[in-house]
């Protein structure tokens, strides 16, 4: 497999330095470490019990009660929050599918209680001294799927799905200014985002599709984008090599390497089809509380 050169992502990570992402077949195996090193990865991985306010699954419909409890139980939970001298705590909204940090605000008891009951991200405006629900004017609500308190109980995460752009500028997130880019004299771009490794890779593939080949050879990604038969053959090849790691009991690093190959080529196919990774992750999230047998049966009926 030839190399897939990577430039600085359009939705930039915190660091503006760029690294190549190479995918090879043969003795030299591929790695996504370069992409991981250049991409910030907000979000979390469940390793043990988390302090979660919402007891229902991530598939629960926004608007429903977030917890199966009465007002006294909610009040008891709110009592555990370490409100500051003004009765406030920091609240951060994070995209449940992409992991992107959307915005940061402040909440008081009433704002957090309203968010728990309505599943719409609600904050406290210090300038107006009143509650405000994100989207009440723009209709770009943040639909909350879960709420997390940190270990000190003095900051909060609203994990949710935005209906549209979060920032008042029209950007998807309020965080689009890279400090390192600014230090190098680059102007902020509303198209930039703090992205995870997958989204940095998705951006690179997207830019390869848009590039015009004038001199020299096209990048490997560009070749795949232009040749459906080549792309399909590589996906079949990489899927077979991943299967081989199990059948031949190869070490875990080889399995990870082959999965990186398969994922990269599959993402190129998604780009050709116009499918975003966010759409795939959303489908996976919605299947969390559904058995594989039930999900397959529902597909057969439709």
From TrEMBL:
UniProt keyword Heme, yes or no: no
A GO term, aspect molecular function: phosphoribosyl-AMP cyclohydrolase activity
CDD domains, per the entry: NTP-PPase_HisIE_like
InterPro entries referenced in this protein's UniProt entry, alphabetically: His_synth_HisIE (IPR023019), HisE (IPR008179), PRib-ATP_PPHydrolase-like (IPR021130), PRib_AMP_CycHydrolase_dom (IPR002496), PRib_AMP_CycHydrolase_sf (IPR038019)
Keywords for the protein's UniProt record, in alphabetical order: Amino-acid biosynthesis, ATP-binding, Histidine biosynthesis, Hydrolase, Multifunctional enzyme, Nucleotide-binding
Pathway(s) this gene product operates in, as recorded in its UniProt entry: Amino-acid biosynthesis; L-histidine biosynthesis; L-histidine from 5-phospho-alpha-D-ribose 1-diphosphate: step 3/9; Amino-acid biosynthesis; L-histidine biosynthesis; L-histidine from 5-phospho-alpha-D-ribose 1-diphosphate: step 2/9
Keyword Nucleotide-binding set for record: yes
Every Phosphoribosyl-AMP cyclohydrolase domain range: 103-176
Reaction catalysis annotation: 1-(5-phospho-beta-D-ribosyl)-5'-AMP + H2O = 1-(5-phospho-beta-D-ribosyl)-5-[(5-phospho-beta-D-ribosylamino)methylideneamino]imidazole-4-carboxamide; 1-(5-phospho-beta-D-ribosyl)-ATP + H2O = 1-(5-phospho-beta-D-ribosyl)-5'-AMP + diphosphate + H(+)
GO process terms (BP): L-histidine biosynthetic process
Superkingdom field: Eukaryota
Pfam families: PRA-CH, PRA-PH
Family: In the C-terminal section; belongs to the PRA-PH family. In the N-terminal section; belongs to the PRA-CH family.
Protein name per the record: Phosphoribosyl-AMP cyclohydrolase domain-containing protein
Organism, as annotated: Urochloa decumbens
């Amino acid at each position: 497999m030839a190399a897939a050169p990577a430039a600085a992502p359009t939705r930039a990570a915190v660091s503006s330095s760029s690294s190549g992402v190479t995918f090879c077949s043969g003795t030299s195996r591929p790695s996504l470490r370069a992409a991981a090193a250049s991409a910030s990865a907000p979000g979390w991985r469940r390793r043990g019990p988390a302090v979660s306010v919402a007891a229902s699954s991530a598939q629960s419909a926004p608007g429903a009660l977030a917890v199966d409890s009465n007002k006294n139980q909610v009040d008891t939970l709110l009592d555990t929050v370490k409100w500051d001298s003004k009765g406030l705590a920091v609240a951060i909204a994070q995209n449940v599918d992409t992991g992107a940090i959307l915005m940061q605000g402040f909440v008081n008891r009433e704002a957090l209680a309203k968010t728990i009951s309505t599943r719409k991200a609600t904050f406290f405006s210090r300038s107006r001294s009143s509650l405000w629900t994100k989207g009440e004017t723009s209709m770009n609500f943040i639909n909350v799927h879960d709420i997390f308190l940190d270990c000190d109980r003095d900051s909060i995460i609203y994990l949710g799905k935005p209906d549209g752009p979060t920032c008042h500028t029209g950007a998807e997130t309020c965080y689009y200014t890279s400090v390192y880019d600014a230090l190098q004299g680059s102007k902020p771009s509303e198209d930039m985002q703090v992205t995870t490794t997958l989204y940095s890779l998705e951006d690179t593939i997207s830019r390869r599709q848009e590039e015009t080949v004038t001199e020299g050879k096209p990048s490997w990604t560009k070749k795949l984008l232009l040749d459906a038969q080549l792309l399909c053959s590589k996906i079949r090849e990489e899927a077979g090599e991943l299967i081989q790691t199990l059948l031949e009991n190869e070490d875990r690093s080889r399995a990870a390497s082959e999965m990186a190959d398969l994922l990269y080529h599959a993402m190129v196919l998604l780009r050709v089809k116009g499918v975003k990774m966010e759409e795939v992750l959303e489908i996976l999230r919605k299947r969390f509380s559904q058995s594989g047998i039930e999900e397959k049966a529902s597909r057969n009926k439709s």
